[in-house]
Write a structure and sequence with these properties.
The complex is a heterodimer of chains A (445) and B (498). Chain A has 445 residues and is of the alpha/beta class. In chain A, strands 3-2-1-4-5-6 form a six-stranded parallel sheet, with helices on both faces. In chain A, strands 14-13-12-15-16-17 form a six-stranded parallel sheet, sandwiched between helices. In chain A, a hairpin with a 2-residue loop joins strand 9 and strand 10. In chain A, helix 1 runs parallel beside helix 14 and helix 6 crosses helix 9. Chain A is globular. Chain A starts with a strand and ends with a helix. The N and C termini of chain B lie close together (8 Å). Chain B is mainly alpha-helical and 498 residues long. In chain B, strand 2 and strand 3 form a beta hairpin. Chain B has a two-stranded antiparallel sheet with strand order 2-3. The relative contact order of chain B is 0.11. Chain B is built from 21 helices and three strands. Chains A and B meet through helix 10 and strand 14 of A and strand 1 of B.
Chain lengths: 445, 498
């Protein structure tokens, strides 16, 4: 497949790097420096120029291109690029937008702006935040098989009963499979004898109920109650949408916004949220409002620095969990090193969503683990797959060692994979696969 | 000093209204012809209102109605119709109405849909005069509908701007884009409901359930029910009729005090609007709760009633009659014990829904007051919380909330001052009026309900009050009916000065 990516920023280059393994990728950006850098770093054809120029798109071979991904930081440019591309050829267009008005228009009338698939950065981020916040101790959660299965990544704290146990000892949950243990950013497949240490992260795959109970009983035993008291700091678009998603789940969160007019607007638009007009860096205020007893604080202002400050303040007064929105991906590890529980990067989420979408067809769904060291894939198996027709005990011997069968769904029913489980044609299998064995595994299954 | 108000424009528009007042006067004229009673009381006002109207119309040919002119026009319209409406009473010279102050009181009570009467002996009055009382009330109801939907919303006065908010919640903000069309729709509804009630009441008579309910009575009562006004040609009001009639009148009073905008949509078949309207639910809850309260008290002690049906009928009838500000009486509630009487007194301050013919403070305002105060309690505990007040899902503007607080407060202050005046003025002429009686009489006139307790009870008359009190009450009815502000604004110097 031939793919043109317009915009070589964080999102664009991440997508390009991911797609270049199996596709012809051409990147267009106005910034000569970025173009050069990308050309060197990855084996990608990078072109300098304006993606909205029809002439340039023609030169890049838009007529023979199968897919165009517009991923600049400017919504309007992305939309115009898609519209322009549509005038020439039968290309599938993907646009990234921030302003949710565009997304609303697009969902209202399919194909608006000449866009075939639109990723709304802010909505996506809000959904990610809401998902992760609902699961105590989780740093990442992704749904599979229409929500029947969840992949979750947990941070193991020093007081967790998992510390010191081996995977075999910890694996006492019915519909839950240990996929991997992450140590200092290194992903290792979970074996029976793998020992879990404090500071590790564990990746589990299972039914949402088992993941929930795992989270509550093992990962953070303190939070036995449901996560309900959530505070959002900053009435940015992401903050607004997070509150809205939580409202839809029946959670009345509190949203703190400094600007009076914006606060009023938010209060009018969010009937199920308590909007407070105050500066969230005022500790007296935070304590006075008992924010220290909140289950989680989400820092979603427009500035990374402010989000960092708010998260640190929240941790300092004793908030259980802090989630910070982080626009600049470079800070992510720094944030987490300082002690912010979860840093969510809208750009990373967007890139992941677009990559996920481009790989659909081959796989039903996927999730990227720790900067693409591994992937969790959902595959509908057919008769030719090595998985089909024999017990898992036998089929795993034909697969590389860096693969874990996490869960199986058959006719919308969750099946726990055991050694003697026989996978049938048409089943959905959720696999955890290390990146270096991805291609051979894809061929086998 | 130049006067900043184009009073000629206001007067011209009042003239246009007066010009057409001869048409409704034909109804009592016809009855007088049929009965062979005096015609002069109606011929004179027919000629004079047409002349006066035409005369005022000649003042100017501008008809550019702006805010200032509209206030003057609204106030003058109600006042001038009250004056013209008093002419038949004066000329007929029957009973208490022969007194000029009484005639004006009765006429103002009519056009403001109040229903407070100075008539002592109904036998003294011709059927034509008694019908004129009903007709003028029906006009008052029609007038207030136009005022509420077309004029007040333009002036952003009273509950009208809120009524817009109410309807905005369901995607269109007005029934039709043009005010005149909206008004015409509501008139049709009003006329239709009146016709339906005549049919029901006279139908009951024909079926034998209401021997007393002649066609004349059916028309006279239909004129004063949907208008929530309450004059009856019978001295003992609705108590003169059978239980079937009393039951039949209850829904018409309740409908009269329901927002006509909502009613319009109900007749269009969208019952969802009714269900989704916070105000309607509140209104129904108020009627239900007070009926239960009054009924329960009557059941436990008091009242000369025997059966459960009788207690239920009178409790529901009186609560609906007072809450909707109709003022009919199915029984002499003066004879009730203190409990249900005081509960009924509380009902006087509630009123029906905004955008109907009802008077008093109205459920819309109370609902906003309740919601805003609950919000204030919430923000008292957490001062930085921002919490808009919502009505049927849409946000109520903070300015509107302030206006509503102010209106409610001013209404209560008016009521208190009026009560004190009634007490003082009565003691001046050595008339025995208890505080409760004075309070109820002040409320019944200012909030346009009609009958009060004691001396001015449902089967009694306002006649014994001194003339000065009656004049003040006439003023109160006028001010209360057009939502206080149009009259009060005329009293501010800055309104007139440039």
């Amino acid at each position: 497949m031939r793919v043109i990516v317009v915009g070589a920023g964080e999102v664009g280059s991440s997508i390009a790097a991911s797609l270049t393994e199996s596709h012809d990728v051409i990147v267009i950006d106005v910034d000569a420096e970025k173009v050069e850098e990308l050309g060197y770093a990855e084996d990608i054809l990078a072109v300098e120029g304006d993606g909205t120029s029809l002439k340039l798109l023609r030169e890049a071979g838009i007529a023979e291109t199968d897919m165009l991904i517009a991923s600049t930081d400017v919504d309007e440019i992305n939309l115009v690029t898609c519209g322009t591309a549509k005038t020439v050829g039968d290309v599938f267009t993907i646009a990234r937008t921030r302003n949710t008005n565009f997304f609303d228009t697009w969902t209202e009338s399919e194909g608006a702006f000449g866009v075939d698939f639109m990723v709304s950065t802010n909505l996506l981020t809000a959904n990610d935040i809401a998902r992760v916040v609902g699961l105590p101790g989780a740093v990442d959660v992704d749904p599979f098989a229409g929500g029947l299965v969840q992949m979750a990544e947990f941070e193991v704290t020093a007081d967790s009963e998992l510390v010191g146990a081996t995977v075999a000892e910890a694996d006492t949950f019915e519909a839950l499979t240990f996929a991997a243990v992450v140590q200092d950013g290194d992903v290792r497949i979970a074996r029976g004898e793998t020992r879990i240490e404090a500071g590790n992260r564990v990746i589990v795959i299972g039914s949402p109920e088992s993941v929930q109970s795992f989270a509550r009983t093992v990962v953070s035993p303190d939070s036995s109650e449901e996560v309900r008291d959530i505070v959002i700091v900053g009435g940015s678009d992401i903050g607004y949408h997070t509150a809205k998603v939580l409202e839809e789940r029946g959670i009345e969160s509190r949203l703190i916004e400094r600007d009076a007019e914006r606060a009023r607007q938010l209060a009018e638009d969010l009937p199920g949220t308590v909007v407070m007009e105050h500066d969230a860096t005022d500790v007296d205020f935070l304590v006075g409002e008992h924010i220290d007893q909140a289950d989680a604080v989400i820092a979603a202002t427009d500035s990374d620095e402010k989000n960092l400050l708010v998260s640190l303040l929240a941790q300092n007064i004793g908030v259980g969990r802090t989630v910070a929105v982080l626009e600049d991906g470079q800070y992510a590890s720094l944030f987490e090193a300082i002690g912010i529980d979860i840093a969510i990067n809208p750009r990373e989420a967007t890139a992941e969503e677009i990559i996920r979408f481009t790989q659909k067809g081959q796989v039903e769904n996927l999730s990227l683990i720790e900067h693409r060291q591994a992937e969790v894939l959902e595959i509908e198996v057919d008769a030719e797959s090595v998985l089909t027709g024999q017990p898992i005990r036998k089929s795993v011997t034909e697969l590389p060692a860096e693969v874990v069968i996490g869960a199986i769904t058959r006719d919308k029913e969750h099946i726990v994979p055991r050694g003697d489980t026989v996978i049938q044609s048409g089943d959905h299998v959720i696999l955890f696969v290390a990146a270096d064995v991805l291609s051979p595994v894809m061929d086998l299954v | 000093m130049r006067i900043r108000v184009k009073w000629r424009v206001s007067c011209r528009l009042v003239g246009i209204v007066l010009k057409w007042l001869w048409i409704p006067l034909l109804i009592p004229l016809g009855i007088a012809l049929y009965d062979g009673t005096a015609l002069i009381p109606f011929v004179v006002p027919i000629v004079s209102t047409a002349m006066l109207g035409l005369g005022l119309e000649q003042l100017t040919d501008e008809d550019d109605l702006r805010t200032r002119e509209a206030f003057l026009m609204v106030s003058l319209t109600w006042l001038s119709i009250a004056l013209v409406g008093a002419i038949p009473f004066l000329l007929a010279g029957e009973g208490a109405l022969a007194e000029p102050v009484n005639a004006l009181f009765e006429s103002m009570s009519g056009i403001t849909t109040t229903g407070a009467t100075v008539i002592v002996n109904f036998e003294l009055h011709s059927r034509a005069i008694l019908m004129w009382r009903a007709v003028i009330q029906w006009l008052g109801g029609l007038g207030i509908l136009v005022l509420a939907t077309a004029v007040l919303s333009q002036l952003s006065v009273g509950g009208a701007q809120l009524m817009e908010t109410e309807t905005q919640t369901q995607d269109i903000n007005k029934l039709t884009p043009r005010i005149s069309e909206t008004a015409a729709l509501l008139w049709k509804l009003y006329i239709g409901l009146t016709g339906a009630q005549v049919a029901v009441l006279y139908g009951l008579h024909l079926l034998g359930y209401a021997p007393e309910m002649t066609l004349y009575d059916a028309v006279a009562h239909a004129f004063t029910t949907v208008a929530t006004s309450g004059f009856s040609p019978r001295g003992d009001s609705i108590a003169a009729f059978s239980p079937a009639v009393q039951w039949a009148i209850i829904p018409f009073m309740a409908i009269g005090a329901t927002s006509f905008v909502l009613l319009y949509f109900v007749f269009q078949g969208s019952f969802d609007r009714l269900r989704n309207s916070d105000e309607f639910r509140f209104y129904v809850a108020v009627l239900g709760a007070f009926s239960l309260g009054v009924g329960g008290m009557l059941f436990v002690n008091g009242g000369p009633y025997t059966g459960i049906e009788e207690i239920a009928r009178h409790a529901i009838f009186q609560v609906v009659s007072i809450v909707t500000t109709t003022g009919y009486a199915s029984t002499d509630f003066n004879l009730w014990s203190a409990g249900p009487k005081h509960l009924l007194f509380v009902c006087m301050f509630i009123g029906g829904m905004a955008g109907s013919t009802t008077c008093s403070i109205k459920t819309l305002r109370w609902l906003v007051v309740v919601k805003a105060f609950r919000r204030d309690l919430f923000t008292a505990a957490s001062p930085s919380a921002v919490r808009p007040v919502r009505l049927s899902g849409s946000v109520v503007d903070e300015g509107t909330i302030r206006d509503i607080y102010a209106y409610t407060l001013v209404s209560l202050v008016f009521f208190i001052l009026a009560t004190i005046f009634v007490v003082i003025d009565a003691s001046r002429v050595q008339l025995t009026v208890s505080e409760f009686e004075a309070m109820s009489a002040a409320a019944a006139t200012f909030l346009n309900i009609g009958p009060a307790f004691g001396i001015a009870g449902p089967l009694e008359s306002y006649e014994p009050f001194p003339n000065s009190t009656k004049l003040v009450m006439t003023f109160l009815m006028w001010v209360g009916r057009i939502e206080i502000i149009p009259v009060l604004v005329l009293l501010t110097p800055s309104y007139w000065r440039s």
